[in-house]
UniProtKB/TrEMBL annotation:
Keywords from the named record: NAD, Nucleotide-binding, Oxidoreductase
Residues that coordinate or bind substrate: K83, K107, S362
MF terms in GO: glutamate dehydrogenase (NAD+) activity; nucleotide binding
Protein family (similarity comment): Belongs to the Glu/Leu/Phe/Val dehydrogenases family.
Protein name: Glutamate dehydrogenase
Residues forming the catalytic site: K119 (proton donor)
Pfam family, one: ELFV_dehydrog_N
PANTHER family, sorted: GLUTAMATE DEHYDROGENASE, GLUTAMATE DEHYDROGENASE 1, MITOCHONDRIAL
Residues the UniProt record annotates as site (Important for catalysis): D159
Gene3D superfamilies noted in UniProt: Leucine Dehydrogenase, chain A, domain 1 (3.40.50.10860), NAD(P)-binding Rossmann-like Domain (3.40.50.720)
SUPFAM superfamilies: Aminoacid dehydrogenase-like, N-terminal domain, NAD(P)-binding Rossmann-fold domains
Binding site for NAD(+): T203
Transmembrane segments: none
Length: 429
């Protein structure tokens, strides 16, 4: 372990280009202003409780070695253990992980799951590494951060570039160090290893759930409505599937290699088979090729960004023609774009609400692991739907009461809950 920083003492400095963290802090500032909180509350909530940066020496399959950098940021513990995904991407930065950890705190509070927020990241392009190399990276990273994680401390889950395999390796490494199997240390595990039924599709189910409610809010019938989905990974793929199953025409999808379109609506099951066979949506028979950026500007009823941060920004917001945007990704919309969408009357269902299905079912997985008692898929799905419904209604009621867009209303609700927990617990010492 190279450094452990108690960020209560050493406040992180915003590095140049750290726009995602600046965006997350701007959203927090709006919420604390609406709530009338003073500067000290903002400072406390803008600052992660604990951060660790580790170096990960990796022996490559060809015998050479290299050193990777990994982070784990625990933003808040006031409502329970920290919780958040682990990202493998060449673009990972500490500031990005800080922003994502903060959003996790708001998401958990908004959905009323008893967690704080965390996030992890390793700067690596998983496409350039074999499974054996990824296993070694995961085990070394887990070993380095193991003093900080655990079912009562911090519970990682999959995010960009990681999956149930990664969570199995993490759980195994941690368990070997503890000397006994600790299923509750990660969520998003394989079903045969204490994973929950419904976890793999939970984020996308929640996205679809919120999308249907948002379309209804705008008086748009789901059956026959058009949708574009950016990103065809763990979130985008199943989101596209559930939208199509509900009768929507998914007219365009993309991944990091390119975008495709078919105005009659893509055959999503056939597209999934194509992606399984080729690794990309590009080249799907019968579809037209499209520029990835153009997907975001299509005239559709629903746009689901489900890839990376900052894709809807000051540069393209005025050209976005979707009626409703439901954020599958974390942080896809910058505050500048939010302002444009508000002016242009585009309804934005924010990430901390729209993609919260994943953490809700992660919570169910953690509960099942700790009780060693497993629920049926129907139980998981109906409990998820009930929680998403409540959160959607709470956020809409707050938006009306406070005359705010949904993002600000959602952040206000979440920040209020976290601040209240801080207040009730008091400041130690
Ligand atoms: P993933 O790695 O499974 O998939 C990411 C997808 O985005 C891939 O298809 C990739 O090709 C594509 N992509 C990357 N850059 C792109 C670009 N510039 N344009 C178009 N496509 C691009 O990751 P994921 O788990 O699906 O996560 C996607 C987003 O959803 C992230 O913001 C993540 O934080 C968020 N999220 C994920 C979960 C979850 O349960 N996995 C939960 C909540 C939020």
């Amino acid at each position: 372990m190279t450094a452990v920083v108690d960020a209560q003492v050493t406040a992180p400095v915003i590095a140049p280009g750290a726009s995602v963290l600046a965006d997350a802090r701007a959203q927090l500032r709006t919420a604390t202003d609406v709530l009338g909180f003073d500067r000290s509350v903002f400072d406390m909530l803008a600052t992660p409780r604990r951060e660790v940066t580790v170096s990960i020496p990796l022996r490559r399959d060809d015998g050479t070695s290299e050193v990777l950098i990994g982070h784990r940021v625990q933003h808040n513990f006031s409502r329970g253990p920290a919780k958040g995904g682990l990202r493998y991407s060449p673009d990972v930065t500490l500031d990005e992980v800080r922003a994502l950890a903060m959003w996790m705190t708001w998401k958990c509070a908004l959905l009323d799951v008893p967690y704080g927020g965390a996030k992890g990241g390793v700067r690596i392009d998983p496409r350039d590494h074999s499974q054996a190399e990824l296993e070694r990276v995961t085990r070394r990273y887990t070993s380095e951060i193991s003093p900080l994680i655990g079912p009562e401390r911090d519970i990682p889950a999959p995010d960009i570039g990681t999956d149930e395999r990664t969570m199995a390796w993490m759980m195994d490494t941690y368990s070997v160090q503890q000397g006994h199997t600790v299923l509750g240390v990660t969520t998003g595990k394989p079903i045969s290893l204490g994973g929950s039924l419904g976890r793999a599709t939970a984020t996308s189910r929640g996205v679809a759930h919120v999308a249907f409610a948002a379309l209804a809010d705008r008086g748009i019938k789901v059956d026959g409505a058009t949708a574009a989905v950016q990103g065809f990974g763990k979130v985008g793929r199943y989101a596209a599937r559930f939208l199509a199953e509900a009768g929507m025409k998914v007219v365009s999808v993309s991944d990091q290699y390119g975008a495709i379109a078919d105005e009659r609506g893509l055959d999503v099951p056939a597209l999934e088979a194509h992606v399984d066979a080729t690794g990309s949506v590009v080249g799907f028979p019968g579809s037209d090729e499209l520029d990835g950026a153009a997907l975001l500007e299509l005239e559709v009823d629903l746009l689901v960004p489900a890839a990376v941060e900052g894709v809807l920004n000051g540069g393209n917001a005025e050209r976005v023609k979707a009626k409703v945007i439901v954020e599958g990704a974390n942080g896809p919309t910058t505050p500048e774009a939010d302002e444009v969408f508000r002016r242009n009357d585009i309804l934005v269902a924010p990430d901390i609400l729209a993609n919260a299905g994943g953490v809700v079912v992660s919570y169910f997985e953690w509960v099942q692991s700790s009780q060693a008692f497993w629920w049926s898929a129907d139980e998981v799905e109906s409990r998820l739907a009930a929680r998403m419904d409540i959160a959607w209604r709470d956020v809409n009621a707050a938006a009306r009461r406070l005359d705010l867009p949904l993002r600000d209303a959602a952040t206000v609700l979440a920040v209020e809950r976290v601040a209240q927990a801080h207040l009730l617990r008091g400041l130690y010492p």
